[in-house]
Design a protein that fits this description.
5-stranded mixed β-sheet, 30% helix, globular
Length: 121
């Protein structure tokens, strides 16, 4: 049972990083934690799509906030921490929250599923 708990914790901290120096400047990175349901979603995708999903989520560690690129959007949720949407590709979307300088990816889905979910956050 302990081995299972350790394995699960490692999966959830898949992208955790404390920050690394870059040209004498300290860059800030955020730990990315992935909920079990979201973690399992890419496993059913083709290998190339899995790689794209993994890479895009890993990039959240360095820049989780919406900006000029337009691939991230903030949603206001009554009574909850704000949620964010990341367009991963023309086919996939991730939903995440930033809480205590940690990124929690709570859902990965197709664009069609995401459009249905927008009003439910």
């Amino acid at each position: 049972m302990i081995k299972e708990m350790v394995a699960q914790e490692k999966r959830r901290h898949l992208f955790e990083d404390a920050g690394r120096p870059f040209c004498g400047v300290q860059t800030v990175t955020f730990p990315v934690l992935i909920e079990d349901e979201a973690f399992e979603f890419p496993g059913n995708l083709p290998e190339k799509s899995q790689r794209i999903v993994h890479d895009r989520i890993a990039r959240l560690a360095e820049d989780p906030f919406p900006g000029k690129a337009g691939d991230k959007e903030r949603f206001t949720c009554a009574g909850k921490d704000p949620a964010y949407r990341l367009h991963i590709s023309p086919s996939y979307t991730a939903f995440y929250r930033i809480i205590n300088e940690r990124i929690y990816v709570f859902n990965l889905m197709t664009i069609e599923q995401a459009h249905k979910k927008y009003g439910l956050l």
